[in-house]
Every structure is written in C-alpha cells, then in structure tokens.
Hints:
Chain A is of the alpha/beta class.
Amino acid sequence: xxxxxxxxxxxxxxxxxxxxxxxxxxxxxxxxxxxxxxxxxxxxxxxxxxxxxxxxxxxxxxxxxxxxxxxxxxxxxxxxxxxxxxxxxxxxxxxxxxxxxxxxxxxxxxxxxxxxxxxxxxxxxxxxxxxxxxxxxxxxxxxxxxxxxxxxxxxxxxxxxxxxxxxxxxxxxxxxxxxxxxxxxxxxxxxxxxxxxxxxxxxxxxxxxxxxxxxxxxxxxxxxxxxxxxxxxxx
Amino acid sequence: xxxxxxxxxxxxxxxxxxxxxxxxxxxxxxxxxxxxxxxxxxxxxxxxxxxxxxxxxxxxxxxxxxxxxxxxxxxxxxxxxxxxxxxxxxxxxxxxxxxxxxxxxxxxxxxxxxxxxxxxxxxxxxxxxxxxxxxxxxxxxxxxxxxxxxxxxxxxxxxxxxxxxxxxxxxxxxxxxxxxxxxxxxxxxxxxxxxxxxxxxxxxxxxxxxxxxxxxxxxxxxxxxxxxxxxxxxxxxxxxxxxxxxxxxxxxxxxxxxxxxxxxxxxxxxxxxxxxxxxxxxxxxxxxxxxxxxxxxxxxxxxxxxxxxxxxxxxxxxxxxxxxxxxxxxxxxxxxxxxxxxxxxxxxxxxxxxxxxxxxxxxxxxxxxxxxxxxx
Lengths: 235, 376
C-alpha cells in the first residue's frame, strides 16, 4: 500500500549534532523517515527528544550534520539559500506555535504573505485566500487585524497562510501549544479537514498525545532516535 | 510589499517620526542655506550685469573703502590708449546718517565722484534706473542721489535732507539697480565726500574708466596692468563678478559640507531605527523566510522601509525648507529656491534613506528561520 503513494520527503540516516560547551548534543542520532503524499503524520516525543530538530530538517530550514534529505527525490544538500527559499515557497508550508502573524496586516493580507514577493501574487491568490479562510470558518474575519482575533482564530489564519501557495506538505510545530484544549482540537480538526479535502500532507510535531487520534501515521521519538512508527487505518 | 513596509514603519510611530525629523531638518536647512547663497549670487550678478567698464584700484586694496591712491594716476590712466574718460571716485562707509549709526553698517556706502567727468561719460554714475528726481549736473554740490534701499530705510524722498557724518545733503533723485547690494549707496560729488569724511584732496579710492570702444575693455585692462601693474590693478566689471563667483562657490561648498554632515547624522539615526526594528521582528522575519521569502525579498522589505523614511523626510523637508526660505524674504533677505535644489534635496534624502537601510537589511536577511520556529 505504501509503495503506491508518492514519497514527498525522505531522510536517510540523518544525524544532527550540536556543540554545547564541551559536550556534543546528539539531537538526531541516525534517523530515517519517509513522508508520503496525503499523510497526516504526528511526531510525538518529550521535550529535548529531537522532534523539533527533525521537523526543521524535514522542512529544509536546517541542514543535517550527516545524512541525506530528499524532497521529491531531489537531494537538497546541493541547493543554496535561494533555491531552498524557492523550494519552501513552492512546496512547503509552515504553521508555528506562536502564529507569527504580522500585526499590522489584516487576516486576508496575512494569508497572502507567502505570495507577496511574487509579482501580482496578491491579486492572483486573493480568491484562493478568501476560499481557504471560508473553509476554516474565518470568512467573516477577512479585514480583522490579528489582535482582534482569538488565539484559535489566529492559528487558523496561519493554517490558511501555510496553504496559500498550494504546497505539497505542511509542517506544524506545536500548533496547539498556545491554545486551550478545546480550541486546539478545533485547529487540529481544521487541518484534518484540509488534509482530506485538498489531499494535503501534514506533519505535526507535538508533545500533546491527544493529537495522536487524528494521525494516519504516528512517529515516536526519544533521545534523537525514532522508537516506533504506527500506521492507522481510517475508513 | 510597499504597503507592508509603510505599515511596519508605523508600528513605532514616535521612533519613525524622530528618524524622519532628522531628514526633515537636514533637507530644510540645506534648502534654506543654498537658497540664501543663490539669492545673494543672483543679487551680485544682476548688480554687475548692469554695470560696465573698467576699474582701477590700488594694488594692495582688499576693499575699495580701505584703499587709496594718488590722484596723479588720473592723468597717467587718461593717456592710455583706448581710454575715454577717467572718473576719480572716493568710497567711504558713513559714520553716521541723520546723527545715528547706519542701519546697515556693512552695506551702506557713500560714493563721491568727480561730477564734471561723470557728465562727460555715458555712464550715469549708478548703473541703474532713476525712480524719481534727476541725475547729477556737472556743477552740483551739496546734493545726493540715493539708492532705493536708503530711501526705504531712512524714509527719504526727493527734496529731503540727509545728514552724513553731520553734513547735510539735499536728495535730488532716487535710483535702483535691481540689486540690494548697490541700492544701499548714497552718491554725491567727490568734493562733498572729501569734506564730510576728511579724505585727502590728492587721493582717490579708485578710478572708474570709460573706454572708447566697449569691446576693447579687456585690452585696456591689459595695457594698464602691463604699464603700471606694480602699483595699481585694473579689471573689468566682469572680473569683479568672477571674483565674487569664486567666493560664492566656496560658500556653496561650505553649505554642502554642512548639509552632508546633517545627512550623515540623519543616516546614523535611520540605521539605528532600522536595526532596532529588525531585531525586534526577528521571529517575524524568520517566519517570512520559512514561508518562502528569499534573502533578497527581506532586503527589499527593509530597504523599502528605510527608503520611505527618506521619502517622507524629504517631502516634509522640502516643504519646510521652501516655506522657511520664503519667509526669510519677509526679513529682507533675498533667497532663490531653484527646481534642481528642490529635486536634488528630495532625491538626496531618498538616497540617504535607502543607503542607511543597506546594513540593517543585510542583517535581517541573515537571520536564521529556525529562531522563529523555536518555541520558548
């Protein structure tokens, strides 16, 4: 079954070591993982387990000390800053724990941020932005500023922002970390909705086990190593 | 992105306004100073464009008011080929006018000329236009022709008495040259001026020379300087004008140097503002990079912001500068605001703004996107 699905990202035997004073911190210690199209992957682990580092490397924001990263079968080791930015612009979306919305811009303008540098980008993507905001229930908040929105609404704005450029894969780093459990649930459900409706691949990093119930694959990480991968069969 | 940059500037209104103010002051002071110099230049140029002929001054005289030369030169110069008339002239600064110190201590001059010679010359003695009254007759004594500035400053008219150093002269006419500089003079006969200023009978300040053929003036100048160059110096009025131009050019240079220092200070203020603003937004900028903005996109955003400080500062600086420059006219100062000055100051401000943004922009583009994602 796995083999029929397209592999979006593959990392092979990845190590990430930090020098911290005299000691070497092994944030990742020989990790291999594949993410497939349409997956809803939840990576869980306690803090310090290396799950954020894993996500940064999967999302091309960080380079491994050793090992290989492939996005659409392309080894990104050979890409410079500009090509990596283009890769992120075209294929990858991010959702952050602290939202990172621009406070001076409206909901709609924030969603259009990733395409802002493209010439005519905001005009071309405006309809999609409105449609995305509609889908996640913010259709009536287009012209609100972030400080006029609740935490859950803000996070849903950042979900729409992550999807505006129609990426293949969306990474979310502790997306419910700043939200209460009920709002957090709604946010995860919004992601799940887009995962099913638009067949978007999601990779969520969290220490919140309640998110696991939405996962199509669960990745458990501890001390820089993947300890277990579980597949869940829906439907 | 321009709109976004503009909004970013208004997150810290006061800080942005202070940076803008630096540019405003720089631009406004540049416009005021340069327009003053240009106004003065225009004044000088119009003064000399109406004057003509040749002047002979003692070789060591830095200023006609302080120099003196023997009147034996009158004959010597008269005999030089091409010379038509030599008008002996005395120029003094009045000690008092109507019993008071002159209002404009530097600008007011009393000029006494040999009126017999003036009558023979085609030059009417003041190189300008008569506003009222009449010009000199060869045997006028105890009378004065006054410049428009004197008329306005001392409330004189034709028929009034004007008391110079205690000696009373009757005003017979008022002239204007279009130049405040020359309109601040009182013309009288050389005999009257010698008497009221105790100037020796056998001395003159300088000689005004009329040439037979106007186009020969530089030939006559050369000849006089060749013959008598050790003691006296002849020059055409154009040479005077050129000398003033050199002085004004150095004043302009000084003004530009001052303005450059002001721009430099303004630039430092912008650099500081932008660096702070970039550091405060490091999470946001990291997030922008994570969502696919290139380093160049970040650089562009920051340059837009600092450039906008330049644009806004330049705009208000030009408005303030032009207003200030025009209000100086009310105080009797001549200013001239030219289009190149306005455009130059404005685009200079924009340039300074963009330039000041380069370092903060590069700094911002080098921020690590991982910092934005790191949960605290």
